[in-house]
Amino acid sequence: MKPWVKLLIAALVLALCVGGYVVLSKMNSDSAKKSAETEQTEQLIGTLEGDVAKIKYTYGGKTYRFTLSEDKWTNADDANMPIDNDTVAAVATSLKNGAEVVRVVDESGQYKTSFGLDNPVLTVIAGDGSAEVKYQVGDKNASLGGYYAKLNDSDTVYIIDSTIPESLMKDIYDFVEADSFPSVLSDNVRGINLTSGGKTLELTYFAEGRSNIYTKNYTWFLFKDGGYTPARSSAVTVLAGDIVGITADKCVNYKPSSSELEAYGLTNPETTVMLSYVVIDGTDASEESAVVTIKIGAETGAGGARYLTWSDTEMVFTVDEDTVNDILAYLDEDFEPNEVCAMTVDEVKSAEMTANGVTVNLIHTKQTSTNSDGGTTTTDVYTVDGNVVENSKAEAVFTSLNKLKIDSVADKGNAEGTPYLTITLHSDREGFETLTLKAYAYNTNFYRVSFNGRNNMLVSLRDIENLAGKISALAQ
Protein backbone atom coordinates (compact mmCIF):
# COMPACT_ATOMS: atom_id res chain seq x y z
CA MET A 1 0.00 0.00 0.00
CA LYS A 2 1.33 3.38 -0.93
CA PRO A 3 2.34 5.69 1.96
CA TRP A 4 -0.07 8.47 1.02
CA VAL A 5 -2.99 6.01 1.10
CA LYS A 6 -2.06 4.90 4.65
CA LEU A 7 -1.97 8.54 5.75
CA LEU A 8 -5.44 9.18 4.29
CA ILE A 9 -6.95 6.19 6.09
CA ALA A 10 -5.39 7.25 9.39
CA ALA A 11 -6.77 10.75 9.01
CA LEU A 12 -10.28 9.41 8.37
CA VAL A 13 -10.15 7.18 11.46
CA LEU A 14 -9.01 10.11 13.59
CA ALA A 15 -11.83 12.28 12.28
CA LEU A 16 -14.41 9.63 13.12
CA CYS A 17 -13.07 9.30 16.66
CA VAL A 18 -13.12 13.03 17.27
CA GLY A 19 -16.65 13.33 15.86
CA GLY A 20 -17.88 10.50 18.04
CA TYR A 21 -16.41 12.12 21.11
CA VAL A 22 -18.11 15.45 20.32
CA VAL A 23 -21.51 13.79 19.81
CA LEU A 24 -21.18 11.77 23.01
CA SER A 25 -20.17 14.86 24.97
CA LYS A 26 -23.16 16.76 23.60
CA MET A 27 -25.52 13.94 24.56
CA ASN A 28 -24.11 13.82 28.07
CA SER A 29 -24.44 17.60 28.36
CA ASP A 30 -28.09 17.56 27.23
CA SER A 31 -28.85 14.77 29.66
CA ALA A 32 -27.24 16.71 32.50
CA LYS A 33 -29.16 19.85 31.53
CA LYS A 34 -32.47 17.99 31.51
CA SER A 35 -31.66 16.53 34.90
CA ALA A 36 -30.83 19.97 36.27
CA GLU A 37 -34.09 21.44 34.90
CA THR A 38 -36.02 18.61 36.56
CA GLU A 39 -34.32 19.35 39.85
CA GLN A 40 -35.12 23.06 39.49
CA THR A 41 -38.78 22.37 38.79
CA GLU A 42 -39.04 20.37 42.02
CA GLN A 43 -37.10 22.94 44.10
CA LEU A 44 -38.89 24.93 46.80
CA ILE A 45 -37.56 28.18 48.26
CA GLY A 46 -38.62 30.20 51.28
CA THR A 47 -40.03 27.31 53.32
CA LEU A 48 -40.65 27.86 57.04
CA GLU A 49 -40.67 25.21 59.73
CA GLY A 50 -43.40 26.70 61.89
CA ASP A 51 -46.87 27.93 61.02
CA VAL A 52 -46.96 31.44 59.63
CA ALA A 53 -48.24 33.90 62.23
CA LYS A 54 -47.52 37.24 60.53
CA ILE A 55 -47.86 38.41 56.95
CA LYS A 56 -46.86 41.79 55.62
CA TYR A 57 -47.16 42.65 51.97
CA THR A 58 -46.90 45.73 49.78
CA TYR A 59 -48.91 45.92 46.59
CA GLY A 60 -50.24 48.82 44.53
CA GLY A 61 -48.31 51.28 46.64
CA LYS A 62 -50.00 50.21 49.87
CA THR A 63 -48.82 48.00 52.70
CA TYR A 64 -51.10 45.54 54.49
CA ARG A 65 -50.47 43.37 57.56
CA PHE A 66 -52.16 40.27 58.97
CA THR A 67 -51.53 38.71 62.38
CA LEU A 68 -52.67 35.37 63.78
CA SER A 69 -53.96 35.05 67.33
CA GLU A 70 -55.88 32.09 68.74
CA ASP A 71 -56.40 30.65 65.24
CA LYS A 72 -57.97 33.88 64.03
CA TRP A 73 -56.45 36.17 61.42
CA THR A 74 -56.94 39.91 61.81
CA ASN A 75 -55.97 43.03 59.95
CA ALA A 76 -53.10 44.35 62.12
CA ASP A 77 -54.03 47.91 61.17
CA ASP A 78 -57.77 47.56 61.81
CA ALA A 79 -58.75 44.83 64.24
CA ASN A 80 -62.46 45.46 63.67
CA MET A 81 -62.34 44.66 59.97
CA PRO A 82 -64.14 41.33 59.34
CA ILE A 83 -61.44 39.20 57.74
CA ASP A 84 -62.18 35.96 55.89
CA ASN A 85 -60.14 33.61 58.04
CA ASP A 86 -60.05 30.75 55.51
CA THR A 87 -58.72 32.96 52.71
CA VAL A 88 -55.82 34.34 54.75
CA ALA A 89 -55.11 30.90 56.24
CA ALA A 90 -54.72 29.49 52.71
CA VAL A 91 -52.17 32.20 51.90
CA ALA A 92 -50.31 31.45 55.15
CA THR A 93 -50.12 27.76 54.27
CA SER A 94 -48.65 28.57 50.85
CA LEU A 95 -46.05 30.82 52.46
CA LYS A 96 -45.08 28.12 54.97
CA ASN A 97 -44.66 25.55 52.20
CA GLY A 98 -42.56 27.91 50.11
CA ALA A 99 -42.54 28.89 46.44
CA GLU A 100 -41.99 26.34 43.73
CA VAL A 101 -39.09 27.32 41.47
CA VAL A 102 -39.96 27.11 37.80
CA ARG A 103 -36.47 28.16 36.72
CA VAL A 104 -33.29 29.62 38.15
CA VAL A 105 -32.66 32.60 35.89
CA ASP A 106 -29.38 33.98 37.24
CA GLU A 107 -27.16 33.50 40.29
CA SER A 108 -24.45 36.02 39.43
CA GLY A 109 -26.32 39.16 40.41
CA GLN A 110 -26.08 40.54 36.89
CA TYR A 111 -29.88 40.63 36.53
CA LYS A 112 -30.91 41.38 40.12
CA THR A 113 -32.58 44.65 39.06
CA SER A 114 -33.98 43.33 35.79
CA PHE A 115 -37.41 41.84 35.04
CA GLY A 116 -39.21 44.46 37.19
CA LEU A 117 -37.14 43.66 40.29
CA ASP A 118 -35.74 47.19 40.55
CA ASN A 119 -39.26 48.26 41.59
CA PRO A 120 -41.10 45.08 42.67
CA VAL A 121 -44.81 44.88 41.98
CA LEU A 122 -45.17 42.86 45.19
CA THR A 123 -43.09 42.50 48.34
CA VAL A 124 -44.01 39.87 50.92
CA ILE A 125 -42.60 39.19 54.38
CA ALA A 126 -43.90 36.19 56.33
CA GLY A 127 -42.78 34.92 59.72
CA ASP A 128 -43.45 31.95 61.99
CA GLY A 129 -42.18 33.60 65.21
CA SER A 130 -38.62 32.34 64.94
CA ALA A 131 -37.76 32.96 61.29
CA GLU A 132 -39.08 34.98 58.41
CA VAL A 133 -38.89 34.95 54.64
CA LYS A 134 -39.04 37.83 52.17
CA TYR A 135 -40.09 37.72 48.53
CA GLN A 136 -39.61 40.50 46.00
CA VAL A 137 -41.75 39.83 42.95
CA GLY A 138 -41.35 41.46 39.55
CA ASP A 139 -42.74 40.86 36.08
CA LYS A 140 -44.72 37.85 34.97
CA ASN A 141 -43.17 35.43 32.50
CA ALA A 142 -46.16 34.78 30.26
CA SER A 143 -44.71 31.73 28.54
CA LEU A 144 -43.89 29.92 31.80
CA GLY A 145 -46.78 31.31 33.81
CA GLY A 146 -44.59 32.29 36.76
CA TYR A 147 -43.09 35.48 38.19
CA TYR A 148 -39.52 36.73 38.41
CA ALA A 149 -38.60 36.92 42.09
CA LYS A 150 -35.77 37.24 44.60
CA LEU A 151 -35.66 35.70 48.04
CA ASN A 152 -34.38 37.43 51.20
CA ASP A 153 -32.63 40.22 49.24
CA SER A 154 -30.25 37.74 47.58
CA ASP A 155 -28.83 38.33 44.11
CA THR A 156 -30.31 35.11 42.69
CA VAL A 157 -33.21 35.62 40.32
CA TYR A 158 -35.86 32.91 40.02
CA ILE A 159 -39.05 32.35 38.15
CA ILE A 160 -41.47 31.08 40.80
CA ASP A 161 -44.91 29.52 40.52
CA SER A 162 -47.79 32.03 40.47
CA THR A 163 -49.54 30.70 43.60
CA ILE A 164 -47.97 33.00 46.20
CA PRO A 165 -47.77 36.16 44.06
CA GLU A 166 -51.33 36.01 42.77
CA SER A 167 -52.78 35.19 46.19
CA LEU A 168 -51.49 38.57 47.43
CA MET A 169 -51.83 40.80 44.39
CA LYS A 170 -54.95 42.23 46.00
CA ASP A 171 -55.99 45.02 48.31
CA ILE A 172 -57.17 44.45 51.86
CA TYR A 173 -60.86 44.38 50.87
CA ASP A 174 -60.29 41.24 48.84
CA PHE A 175 -59.78 39.52 52.21
CA VAL A 176 -62.92 40.90 53.86
CA GLU A 177 -65.65 38.48 54.90
CA ALA A 178 -68.41 40.35 53.10
CA ASP A 179 -72.14 40.23 53.76
CA SER A 180 -74.15 38.31 51.18
CA PHE A 181 -76.78 39.93 48.99
CA PRO A 182 -80.24 38.74 50.11
CA SER A 183 -81.15 35.35 48.66
CA VAL A 184 -84.70 35.60 47.34
CA LEU A 185 -86.50 33.40 44.82
CA SER A 186 -88.20 35.46 42.11
CA ASP A 187 -91.37 33.38 42.65
CA ASN A 188 -91.46 34.63 46.24
CA VAL A 189 -91.43 38.34 45.33
CA ARG A 190 -94.63 40.09 46.33
CA GLY A 191 -93.92 43.74 45.59
CA ILE A 192 -91.50 45.99 43.70
CA ASN A 193 -91.13 49.72 44.21
CA LEU A 194 -88.47 51.15 41.90
CA THR A 195 -87.55 54.84 41.99
CA SER A 196 -84.91 56.59 39.89
CA GLY A 197 -84.48 59.91 38.13
CA GLY A 198 -87.87 61.22 39.23
CA LYS A 199 -89.69 58.14 37.91
CA THR A 200 -91.45 55.53 40.04
CA LEU A 201 -92.63 52.02 39.26
CA GLU A 202 -94.86 50.26 41.80
CA LEU A 203 -95.93 46.64 41.26
CA THR A 204 -97.91 44.56 43.77
CA TYR A 205 -98.91 40.91 43.91
CA PHE A 206 -102.48 39.93 44.86
CA ALA A 207 -102.84 36.15 45.12
CA GLU A 208 -106.61 36.21 44.45
CA GLY A 209 -106.53 39.06 41.97
CA ARG A 210 -108.67 42.16 42.53
CA SER A 211 -112.44 42.28 42.65
CA ASN A 212 -112.68 45.15 40.15
CA ILE A 213 -111.05 43.04 37.42
CA TYR A 214 -113.08 40.56 35.35
CA THR A 215 -110.86 37.56 36.19
CA LYS A 216 -108.93 36.25 39.15
CA ASN A 217 -106.06 35.21 36.89
CA TYR A 218 -104.32 38.57 36.98
CA THR A 219 -102.19 38.54 40.12
CA TRP A 220 -99.65 41.30 39.41
CA PHE A 221 -100.86 44.88 39.33
CA LEU A 222 -99.36 48.22 38.42
CA PHE A 223 -100.26 51.12 40.70
CA LYS A 224 -100.74 54.17 38.54
CA ASP A 225 -102.81 57.34 38.73
CA GLY A 226 -104.20 56.32 42.10
CA GLY A 227 -105.42 52.87 41.06
CA TYR A 228 -104.38 49.33 40.24
CA THR A 229 -104.38 47.93 36.71
CA PRO A 230 -103.33 44.40 35.66
CA ALA A 231 -99.66 44.01 34.80
CA ARG A 232 -98.14 41.56 32.35
CA SER A 233 -96.83 38.80 34.59
CA SER A 234 -94.07 37.74 32.20
CA ALA A 235 -92.51 41.21 32.33
CA VAL A 236 -92.78 41.35 36.12
CA THR A 237 -91.14 37.93 36.42
CA VAL A 238 -88.14 39.05 34.37
CA LEU A 239 -87.80 42.28 36.38
CA ALA A 240 -88.02 40.39 39.68
CA GLY A 241 -85.37 37.97 38.43
CA ASP A 242 -83.06 40.86 37.51
CA ILE A 243 -83.43 42.40 40.97
CA VAL A 244 -82.93 39.24 43.04
CA GLY A 245 -80.08 38.31 40.70
CA ILE A 246 -78.05 41.42 41.52
CA THR A 247 -74.42 40.51 42.18
CA ALA A 248 -72.68 42.59 44.83
CA ASP A 249 -69.20 42.52 43.32
CA LYS A 250 -66.57 43.84 45.72
CA CYS A 251 -66.89 45.27 49.19
CA VAL A 252 -65.16 48.66 49.26
CA ASN A 253 -66.03 49.79 52.78
CA TYR A 254 -67.18 47.61 55.65
CA LYS A 255 -68.39 50.46 57.87
CA PRO A 256 -68.59 53.79 56.05
CA SER A 257 -68.96 57.09 57.84
CA SER A 258 -71.81 59.47 56.99
CA SER A 259 -69.44 61.56 54.88
CA GLU A 260 -68.26 58.46 53.00
CA LEU A 261 -71.86 57.40 52.34
CA GLU A 262 -72.51 60.83 50.90
CA ALA A 263 -69.43 60.53 48.68
CA TYR A 264 -70.71 57.17 47.44
CA GLY A 265 -74.04 58.79 46.54
CA LEU A 266 -75.86 56.58 49.04
CA THR A 267 -77.19 59.20 51.47
CA ASN A 268 -79.82 60.24 48.93
CA PRO A 269 -79.40 57.44 46.38
CA GLU A 270 -80.09 57.99 42.73
CA THR A 271 -81.89 54.64 42.55
CA THR A 272 -83.86 52.81 45.23
CA VAL A 273 -85.56 49.43 44.98
CA MET A 274 -87.87 48.29 47.76
CA LEU A 275 -88.44 44.58 47.35
CA SER A 276 -91.21 42.82 49.30
CA TYR A 277 -91.08 39.04 49.46
CA VAL A 278 -92.06 36.02 51.52
CA VAL A 279 -89.85 33.49 53.25
CA ILE A 280 -91.50 30.08 53.11
CA ASP A 281 -90.91 27.65 55.96
CA GLY A 282 -89.77 24.32 54.56
CA THR A 283 -91.51 22.40 57.35
CA ASP A 284 -95.07 23.68 57.36
CA ALA A 285 -95.03 25.92 54.25
CA SER A 286 -95.99 28.94 56.35
CA GLU A 287 -95.03 32.33 54.96
CA GLU A 288 -93.25 35.20 56.66
CA SER A 289 -93.20 38.60 54.99
CA ALA A 290 -89.93 40.47 54.56
CA VAL A 291 -88.70 43.66 52.89
CA VAL A 292 -85.27 44.71 51.70
CA THR A 293 -84.39 48.18 50.42
CA ILE A 294 -81.63 48.30 47.82
CA LYS A 295 -79.75 51.55 47.28
CA ILE A 296 -77.67 52.29 44.18
CA GLY A 297 -75.47 55.35 44.25
CA ALA A 298 -72.85 57.17 42.23
CA GLU A 299 -70.45 55.83 39.62
CA THR A 300 -67.28 54.42 41.14
CA GLY A 301 -64.98 56.34 38.82
CA ALA A 302 -63.37 53.11 37.62
CA GLY A 303 -65.93 52.87 34.83
CA GLY A 304 -68.82 50.47 34.37
CA ALA A 305 -69.79 50.22 38.06
CA ARG A 306 -71.80 51.96 40.76
CA TYR A 307 -71.88 51.83 44.55
CA LEU A 308 -74.42 49.54 46.18
CA THR A 309 -75.77 48.80 49.63
CA TRP A 310 -78.99 47.44 51.13
CA SER A 311 -81.00 47.65 54.33
CA ASP A 312 -79.53 44.54 55.99
CA THR A 313 -75.89 45.62 55.78
CA GLU A 314 -73.61 48.51 56.65
CA MET A 315 -71.15 47.51 53.93
CA VAL A 316 -70.79 49.26 50.59
CA PHE A 317 -70.15 47.25 47.42
CA THR A 318 -69.76 47.83 43.72
CA VAL A 319 -72.31 46.61 41.19
CA ASP A 320 -72.03 46.31 37.42
CA GLU A 321 -73.69 49.28 35.73
CA ASP A 322 -75.20 47.11 32.99
CA THR A 323 -77.12 45.25 35.70
CA VAL A 324 -78.46 48.56 37.00
CA ASN A 325 -79.40 49.75 33.51
CA ASP A 326 -81.30 46.52 32.79
CA ILE A 327 -83.44 47.17 35.87
CA LEU A 328 -83.95 50.88 35.15
CA ALA A 329 -85.20 50.08 31.64
CA TYR A 330 -88.42 48.82 33.26
CA LEU A 331 -89.33 52.36 34.32
CA ASP A 332 -90.39 52.88 30.69
CA GLU A 333 -91.85 49.40 30.18
CA ASP A 334 -95.44 48.95 29.02
CA PHE A 335 -96.81 46.47 31.53
CA GLU A 336 -100.26 46.19 29.98
CA PRO A 337 -101.21 42.52 29.51
CA ASN A 338 -101.24 41.27 25.92
CA GLU A 339 -103.86 38.55 26.45
CA VAL A 340 -107.21 39.22 24.80
CA CYS A 341 -109.08 37.22 27.44
CA ALA A 342 -107.56 35.81 30.63
CA MET A 343 -110.77 34.20 31.94
CA THR A 344 -110.15 30.47 32.10
CA VAL A 345 -112.61 27.61 31.80
CA ASP A 346 -112.81 27.02 35.57
CA GLU A 347 -114.38 30.51 35.96
CA VAL A 348 -117.05 30.00 33.29
CA LYS A 349 -120.52 28.64 34.08
CA SER A 350 -121.83 28.74 30.53
CA ALA A 351 -121.12 30.23 27.14
CA GLU A 352 -122.89 30.95 23.86
CA MET A 353 -120.50 30.75 20.91
CA THR A 354 -121.13 31.45 17.24
CA ALA A 355 -118.58 30.71 14.51
CA ASN A 356 -118.79 29.64 10.87
CA GLY A 357 -122.57 30.08 11.00
CA VAL A 358 -122.88 27.58 13.86
CA THR A 359 -124.08 28.49 17.36
CA VAL A 360 -123.12 26.38 20.35
CA ASN A 361 -124.58 26.64 23.85
CA LEU A 362 -122.10 25.23 26.35
CA ILE A 363 -122.89 24.56 30.01
CA HIS A 364 -120.15 23.82 32.53
CA THR A 365 -121.02 22.03 35.78
CA LYS A 366 -119.13 20.15 38.45
CA GLN A 367 -120.22 16.78 39.83
CA THR A 368 -119.01 15.46 43.17
CA SER A 369 -118.92 11.74 43.91
CA THR A 370 -117.98 9.83 47.06
CA ASN A 371 -115.32 7.15 46.92
CA SER A 372 -115.46 3.82 48.72
CA ASP A 373 -113.05 5.14 51.34
CA GLY A 374 -115.29 8.14 52.03
CA GLY A 375 -113.25 10.62 50.03
CA THR A 376 -114.80 12.85 47.38
CA THR A 377 -113.88 13.49 43.76
CA THR A 378 -114.99 16.51 41.74
CA THR A 379 -115.39 16.13 37.99
CA ASP A 380 -115.99 18.79 35.32
CA VAL A 381 -118.94 18.05 33.05
CA TYR A 382 -119.63 19.93 29.78
CA THR A 383 -122.86 19.72 27.80
CA VAL A 384 -123.85 21.22 24.46
CA ASP A 385 -127.59 21.48 23.86
CA GLY A 386 -128.14 18.93 26.62
CA ASN A 387 -125.61 16.42 25.30
CA VAL A 388 -122.45 15.63 27.21
CA VAL A 389 -119.28 16.38 25.21
CA GLU A 390 -115.73 15.28 25.76
CA ASN A 391 -113.91 17.46 28.25
CA SER A 392 -110.95 17.75 25.89
CA LYS A 393 -113.14 19.34 23.19
CA ALA A 394 -114.63 21.93 25.55
CA GLU A 395 -111.33 22.74 27.19
CA ALA A 396 -109.61 23.06 23.79
CA VAL A 397 -111.90 26.03 23.05
CA PHE A 398 -110.75 27.88 26.17
CA THR A 399 -107.12 26.97 25.59
CA SER A 400 -107.33 28.60 22.16
CA LEU A 401 -109.24 31.56 23.63
CA ASN A 402 -106.59 32.16 26.28
CA LYS A 403 -103.80 31.98 23.69
CA LEU A 404 -105.16 34.96 21.74
CA LYS A 405 -102.61 37.77 21.91
CA ILE A 406 -102.87 41.43 20.97
CA ASP A 407 -100.48 41.91 18.05
CA SER A 408 -101.35 45.55 17.41
CA VAL A 409 -104.16 48.08 17.77
CA ALA A 410 -106.57 49.40 15.15
CA ASP A 411 -107.32 52.99 14.34
CA LYS A 412 -109.92 54.78 16.42
CA GLY A 413 -113.54 54.06 15.70
CA ASN A 414 -115.76 51.04 15.91
CA ALA A 415 -115.70 47.78 14.02
CA GLU A 416 -118.22 47.49 11.22
CA GLY A 417 -120.20 44.64 9.72
CA THR A 418 -121.23 41.26 11.09
CA PRO A 419 -118.80 39.64 13.50
CA TYR A 420 -117.03 36.54 12.20
CA LEU A 421 -116.99 35.07 15.72
CA THR A 422 -118.93 35.82 18.91
CA ILE A 423 -118.43 34.35 22.39
CA THR A 424 -120.54 35.32 25.38
CA LEU A 425 -119.23 34.13 28.73
CA HIS A 426 -121.22 33.81 31.95
CA SER A 427 -119.59 33.64 35.40
CA ASP A 428 -120.33 34.26 39.07
CA ARG A 429 -117.85 37.14 39.34
CA GLU A 430 -119.73 40.13 40.67
CA GLY A 431 -119.94 42.93 38.16
CA PHE A 432 -118.68 40.69 35.35
CA GLU A 433 -121.48 38.12 35.16
CA THR A 434 -121.70 38.44 31.36
CA LEU A 435 -118.86 39.33 28.98
CA THR A 436 -118.90 39.20 25.19
CA LEU A 437 -116.01 38.85 22.75
CA LYS A 438 -116.47 39.66 19.07
CA ALA A 439 -114.06 39.31 16.15
CA TYR A 440 -114.54 41.31 12.94
CA ALA A 441 -112.74 40.95 9.63
CA TYR A 442 -110.02 43.63 9.39
CA ASN A 443 -107.44 42.73 6.72
CA THR A 444 -105.61 39.69 5.38
CA ASN A 445 -103.54 39.36 8.56
CA PHE A 446 -105.78 40.35 11.47
CA TYR A 447 -109.23 40.31 12.95
CA ARG A 448 -110.38 43.29 14.98
CA VAL A 449 -111.48 42.07 18.41
CA SER A 450 -113.60 43.70 21.10
CA PHE A 451 -113.79 42.47 24.69
CA ASN A 452 -114.33 43.97 28.15
CA GLY A 453 -114.42 47.58 27.03
CA ARG A 454 -111.68 47.38 24.40
CA ASN A 455 -112.63 47.37 20.72
CA ASN A 456 -109.37 48.02 18.90
CA MET A 457 -107.37 44.83 19.49
CA LEU A 458 -105.81 43.30 16.38
CA VAL A 459 -105.38 39.55 16.66
CA SER A 460 -103.80 37.04 14.30
CA LEU A 461 -106.21 35.83 11.62
CA ARG A 462 -104.87 32.30 11.97
CA ASP A 463 -105.45 32.23 15.76
CA ILE A 464 -109.04 33.49 15.44
CA GLU A 465 -109.86 30.95 12.75
CA ASN A 466 -108.24 28.19 14.82
CA LEU A 467 -110.55 29.17 17.71
CA ALA A 468 -113.54 29.12 15.35
CA GLY A 469 -112.61 25.61 14.29
CA LYS A 470 -112.54 24.44 17.94
CA ILE A 471 -116.03 25.91 18.46
CA SER A 472 -117.38 24.18 15.35
CA ALA A 473 -115.95 20.88 16.61
CA LEU A 474 -118.16 21.13 19.69
CA ALA A 475 -121.28 21.00 17.52
CA GLN A 476 -120.22 17.81 15.80
List keywords for this structure.
disordered N terminus, nine-stranded antiparallel sheet, 476 residues, alpha+beta, 37% strand, 27 strands, 23% helix
Shape: elongated
Which strand order does the major sheet show?
1-5-9-8-7-6-2-3-4
* Number of helices in the DSSP assignment: 8
Number of strands: 27
Rg calculated over all Cα atoms: 39 Å
Largest sheet: 9 strands, antiparallel
Residues in helices, as a percent range: 10-25%
Give the overall pLDDT as a whole number: 90
Low-confidence stretches: 1-18, 20-41
Could you tell me the strand content as a percent range? 35-45%
Structural class: alpha+beta
Cα distance spanning the termini:
123 Å
Summarize the structure.
It contains eight helices and 27 strands. It has helices at residues 3-41, 85-97, 163-168, 233-244, 258-263, 321-328, 391-402, 461-474, and strands at 44-45, 54-59, 62-69, 72-75, 99-106, 122-127, 132-141, 146-151, 157-160, 189-196, 199-205, 220-224, 227-230, 251-253, 271-280, 287-299, 305-310, 316-320, 350-355, 358-370, 376-384, 387-389, 408-409, 421-426, 434-441, 446-451, 454-460.
